[in-house]
Specification:
Elements lengths: L1 H9 L19 H4 L14 H4 L4 E4 L3 H14 L2 E4 L6 H12 L5 E3 L5 H13 L5 E8 L9 H16 L21 E2 L5 E6 L5 E9 L2 E9 L6 H10 L6 E3 L2 H4 L2
Parallel strand pairs: 1-2, 2-3, 3-9, 4-6
Antiparallel strand pairs: 4-7, 5-6, 7-8
Helix pairs in contact: 1-8, 4-5, 6-7
Length: 256
């Protein structure tokens, strides 16, 4: 994802790539890692962004690092665009408070694919009219967290949309004999079950499967390449200076 972000930013006339951070390749010339004409040298720590005059930092790392990076950005007046998942609700609220005190802003999103955001919105619209919903998320075999941030966010939004519409709660699961533990997936607080698949060859995919008497509706999103996330990242990069505090999700950036 870091390489994709570098390529995307460098390809835009109104943006300038001035720094890159990755402790695993610190000290390397960025043009030796990415097909770019640049003199940027990869740093080993986020503190180097200040010397480079960074105005907006993009984070696709792991949750502990992203939490620390958001705190640093808020403290140093650097806007942040964060696509890292696995960050807890308490950590999100701490980041929100930090950016509310800061001159910098942050956009934090579980998924920067525009069509994935639309998938979640369509699921919200359908939620009050169906009798049940389950989510199947499928990712590459190196993904560290399960369920995915997108699946959890989808489950939250679907449950909230149903409650806001005054629709009755989802019917209780009638399963009484679990032959294997976990066969029915993870039960989220809103009552939406989530199933995680991890396989080589996948990138990022999700199905929201809804059922009603005599019918079903499946809303599926597929990201076949990490470049699919870059249009959303670029939108957030340009929008974050004008979005005060912490914005969760790409919806506000898209005007949804």
């Amino acid at each position: 994802m870091g390489r994709q972000v570098c390529l995307a930013v460098a390809g835009e006339a109104d943006l300038e790539l001035v720094a890159a951070v990755d402790p695993s390749v610190a000290g390397a010339a960025l043009d030796a890692l990415v097909d770019l004409d640049t003199d940027v040298v990869v740093g080993d720590d986020v503190t180097g962004l200040a010397d480079a005059g960074v105005e907006v930092a993009v984070d696709f790392t792991v949750a502990p690092a992203a939490v620390a990076h958001m705190a640093w950005c808020a403290a140093h007046g650097v806007h942040a665009v964060v696509g890292t998942t696995g960050i807890t609700d308490a950590q999100v609220e701490a980041a929100r408070e930090a950016f509310e005190r800061s001159e910098a802003n942050c956009v934090l999103a579980a998924n920067f694919a525009v069509t994935a955001v639309l998938m979640m919105r369509f699921a919200e619209l359908a939620a009050p009219f169906v009798g049940g919903v389950e989510i199947v998320e499928l990712h590459h075999d190196a993904k560290r967290d399960a369920p995915s941030g997108t699946a959890l966010r989808t489950a939250e939004r679907v449950a909230a949309a149903r409650a806001a519409a005054g629709a009755p709660p989802w019917p209780a699961d009638a399963t009484v004999d679990l032959v294997l533990p976990g066969a029915r997936g993870a039960d989220t607080p809103g009552g939406v079950r989530v199933h995680s698949v991890r396989l080589p060859g996948l990138v990022a995919h999700q199905e929201v499967i809804m059922g009603a008497p005599g019918q079903s509706l499946t809303i599926r999103h597929d990201a076949y390449d990490r470049s699919s996330f870059m249009p959303g990242v670029l939108l957030a990069l340009r929008a974050v200076p004008s979005m005060p505090g912490l914005t969760v999700g790409l919806d506000a950036v898209l005007g949804l």
